Amino acid sequence: MVEFWACVLGLSILLYILLDGFDLGVGMLFPFAPGEPERRRMLASISPVWDGNETWLVVSAATLFGAFPAVFSIILSAFYLPLFLMLAGLILRGVAFEFRYKSTTSRPIWDAGFVAGSYVAAFVQGTAVGAIVQGLPIANGIYAGTPFGWASPFALFCGLGLCIGYALMGACWVAGKSDGALRDFCFRILPGLMSALAAFLVAVFAWSVAIRLPVLDRWMERPVLLLCPLLGMFAFAGLVLAVRRRRERFLFLAGAVIFLAAFATLAGSFLPYMLPFSLTLWQAASPHASLSFLFWGAGVFVLPLTLAYTLVVYFVFRGKTRETGEY
Amino acid sequence: MDISALLLSRIQFAFTISFHIIFPAFTIGLAAWLTFLEACHLITGERIYRRLSDFWMKIFAVAFGLGVVSGIVMAFQFGTNWSELSRRTGPIQGPLLGYESFTAFALEAAFFGVLMFGRDRVPRWAYLVACLMVSLGTSLSAFWIMVNNSWMQYPTGFSLTPDGVFVPTDWSAIIFNEAVWTRFPHMVLAAYVTSAFCVAATGAWYMLRGTAVQEGRAMAVMGLRLAAILVPMQLGFGHLVGDFVHDRQPAKFAAIEGRWNDQQPASEILIAWPDPANERNRFEVAVPYLGSIIGSMSLTSKELGIKSFPPEDRPPVAISFFAFRIMVGCGLLMLALAWTGTVLSFGEGILKARLFLVATASSFPLGFIATLTGWFTAEVGRQPWVVYGQLRTADAVTPFLTTHEVAITFVMIAAVYALIFGFGVLYLFRLLRAGPIPANEISLYATNPKRPLSVPGASPGVSGAAPLGE
User: b/e map of A138-163 (b: 16 or more CB within 10 Å)?
Assistant: First the structure.
């Protein structure tokens, strides 16, 4: 039961990263688009799906609270300030989609909210991952740090890295969804984003070694983990190739595999710990009575339904997006 | 009073939940109202039901979007500000709130798309089913929230581990909690009554203005007649909730009654000015014996006063006392309006009764006020416990939280809410002012299922037929 909910949690977080990742990325690239028509097309490419993408954040939070309340209470309280910043960003971003078309004079406010919300959300998520990997100070099952205890240089660097990664995903997605000037724009910025991501990955690896990140020890114990970065490298090479040959249909796939590899590397290097290295899955899990209660309704019935619904939406809105915003 | 992280966290939670509850109260009722309209349309084939449905669908979409957005913050507050509550009650509250998220998403998200998008793409019966499913989804979501809240009001079916974690032992005792079966209908009826009065008030407004008179009249009459049945039911369930509070939460009951000393037989205080510092009422109007009758259905029963409870276990008396009276006052006002309106509606009287129409038109916020004050009564009355009799609110707050942190986030959230809700309410008002599309115009829809806030006609100077993104 614990394993099942760990898988559900992993899956929903992964889906959130892959799906909301690219639409946050689109928000980050938004101000750099060549012009208003291109901006509209960028918005049109994510409008039908962003809401559903963001739902995976809620599903992840609900799963975490439902199945692993101990971790829920530690993580949410430890990242108190940045989490609120992220929520404010996500709310502003969410209403910006709707309000920007309804307003004439206040449009700059909503555009600014959309862009800033995207950056803040991505940065906070990356920082949180960095801080968790580095290890949160925990005593007696309670976060024992200061309000800015998470804000180590390493964590902030990870925040920057995730911004680059999401922006890359955003560019891949838009390239696949567009043609003409907008696609040219994507192909123009992709090499820069890719070099930035490569540089970040090298730097973060060197930094981890330099500060003797405890998760690195796990790599010695589990050499099989090396397959993950290897897969990531292949995907990266594929991405380079796809950009060279302008095969925009493969871009997003390659980007997604890079993220998948990174996620698997991370998960593999600290499982079965949920918070390295203080709380294991079993220590964090709710009692069996809670997990099985959740399993028979939410796990067996609702979750597959939600997955199916997500697939249907992506299938319905497949193909290139037109400028008008009518789907 | 010291400004502590605890106090600020409580205010922050009260602020976000008060903002949030307005929209579910509206959408639960509106979803049922839309289902009702669609059923009427399907059965009678009258065009007016379709026009009303089209109109209220737009209002519903905006209110639904704002409800979803404002709800996200609350889910996170459990962990950010109340981490001890999450850690200790997580095994029980986690799955309950998990079900709320899962079921609400599965039903609402899937069928909301059909509602916004599928009017002309699915058969009429399927559209009705979609309405029904969204309605079911909103009610189901309310059900899980009420189950969770009722467990906090009356914790059952658990055992405590040595380190204070609540472990579920009997889920049926938790879900089929004694409190749920009066409190859940009370909440759903509150939502229905609130929406009925929004509909009736809007109708009366149109009648007064002389625009969309046919639709306006239909709204006013249907809203008031519906309320004429619902409000008495609501008062009945309110009484049952009161019985529960009397038996299970005597301190809350005494605070609501404004009764300081034990009384036998007890009188019922109608109006008073509670003075907690001196543990008495400065001024009161009371009816002898009525307190015992309301409390225990007897002329002689002894009713407890607040002084029977140690000071550290007493809820804030003044807030409970006044909130309860405002709620009941709104309820009685709505009853009077609904019954008067129903009598007037059989005949042409309602068209001439301008004074009554003005009163009805200004009754728009009554349901919201009653819902809010009802929640204040329930939640403030539960203090100082967050899990009644088991876990104090002071022990549930995130232990290391500083006042500065809460103050910063509070200002941030308040600013964001003020911005988005200011504009959201503005758009709702514009929709209401514009009124239904006249009968002779064909409605051309271009809405998107995944964008609940995007509704044609919401923009200034943009007609209902304008496609999105222009």
Answer: beebbbebebebbbbebbbbbbbbbb
pLDDT tens track for B5-26: 788 888 888 888 888 888 888 8
How far does the CA of residue B438 sit from the closest CA of chain A (Å)?
22
What pLDDT does residue B457 have?
38
At residue B393, the pLDDT reads: 82
Residue of chain A minimizing CA distance to B412: A88
| Selection from A30, A19, A47 nearest residue A255 by Cα | A19
Beta-carbon contacts of A195 under 8 Å, excluding residues fewer than 6 positions away, are none
By C-alpha distance, the chain B residue nearest A110 is B420
Look at residues A151, A142, A9 and name the one whose alpha carbon lies nearest to residue B83: A142
Nearest to A298 among B98, B401, B453 (CB): B98
Could you say which of B65, B101, B420 has the minimum Cβ distance to residue A58? Answer: B101
Q: Which residues pair with B275 in a beta bridge?
A: B280
pTM of the model: 0.82
Is there a contact between B412 and A49 if contact means CB atoms under 8 Å apart? no
Q: What is the mean pLDDT of residues B192-204?
A: 91
- Calculate how close chain A gets to B162, using CA atoms only, in Å: 13
Residue B210 clears pLDDT 70, i.e. is over it: yes
| Smallest Cα distance from A70 to chain B, Å | 5
Residue B1 gets which letter from DSSP? -
Element containing residue B285 per DSSP (H, E): strand B280-287
**CA separation for the pair A292, A114 (Å, rounded):** 40
B213-253 pLDDT tens trace: 788 888 888 888 889 999 999 999 988 888 888 888 888 88
Nearest residue on chain B to A322, judged by CA atoms? B469
Distance between the two ends of chain B, CA-based, in angstroms? 53
pLDDT of B233: 92
CB spacing of A69 vs B87 below 8 angstroms: yes
B-chain residue closest to A65, CA distance: B94
Q: Is the peptide bond before B265 cis (omega within 30 degrees of 0)?
A: yes
CA separation for the pair A80, A303 (Å, rounded): 29
Q: Is the ipTM of this complex over 0.85?
A: no
CB spacing of A90 vs B83 below 8 angstroms:
no
Determine the pLDDT at residue A124.
Answer: 92
Q: Is the Cα dihedral B331, B333, B335, B341 positive or negative?
A: negative
Percent over 90 (pLDDT), chain B = 11
Q: Which of residues 384-423 of B touch A (CB under 8 A)?
A: 398-402, 404-405, 408-409, 412-413, 416, 419-420, 423
What CA–CA distance (Å, rounded) separates B149 from B469?
A: 41
Separation CA A272–CA A266 (nearest Å): 12
> Residue B80: is its pLDDT beyond 60?
yes
Is A325's CB within 8 Å of B451's CB?
no
Record: contact A48-B83, CB cut-off 8 A: no
The pLDDT tens digits of the residues spanning A96-126 come to 877 777 776 778 888 888 899 899 999 999 9
Interface A-B, measured as beta-carbon pairs within 8 A, has a size of 224
